[in-house]
Design a protein that fits this description.
alpha+beta, Peroxisomal Thiolase, Chain A, domain 1, 2 domains, two-stranded antiparallel ribbon, 8 strands, 33% helix, elongated
Amino acid sequence: MEKRTSKRIPVSLEARLILGDITHKAFITNISKNGLYVIALSGENDFANRDERMLMVKFYISSEQFMELQCKEMWSDLSELSSKKMGLEIKDPPVEFKKFYKTSYYKIKKEISHDAIAVIGMSCNYPGAQGLKSFWENILARRREFRLIPSQRLPISEYYDPDPFAPDKTYANRVAVIDGFTFDWIKRGIPKTVVESSDIVHWLALEVALQALEEAGYGRGNIPSDRTGVILGNTLTGEHSRSQYMRLRWPYVKRVLEAS
């Protein structure tokens, strides 16, 4: 594949592809100095069955300015039935298109320069992977971490039923869980009573966040705390919330009532 000589700029333009007397609706999703990336909608067989690789592309670059380009199809992808992806080379790009490309380039560059994000540190804790290295190894090996639900998480004998409509039961009996996580409350300077009364998911999130900061080269002594914030996403579930749902606790309550 030849090295691209100019940057591709993302755009969103409705267009018309014309081959002789055949016209199809299309979308231009990015442009370069002398090329277009186009998605043609339906009727792609009309394109595939033609030996002629030249076509006309028409589109508006503003409410008043119309562009008409003579193009050559360089490659195409017919893997999707409802559309055809095409790479087009513009034959002798006109001055108007060059100006449009330049304007689009500086517009995107200006937008990105104000909102750029650099990833300088990462960390994770997944089932079967307590760090980035093991997580990536699992991905490459296509390793699956699902297994029978451990009894300490959910006693299968009390909660499992293959009937998906059985009330207060689950028809799933396999799960991926995190093993071996312990929180060093002494090292982190957090009272044991606070740790024990809080959901362990809180401390897991804290450890992962700290590891990401450490991987980025930051620690307690050099992190700019006045310009640092932490954003966490949570599905509002965890060990504590899960154990507090009465319907989930019913087998335990039932045993207590029967024993009394």
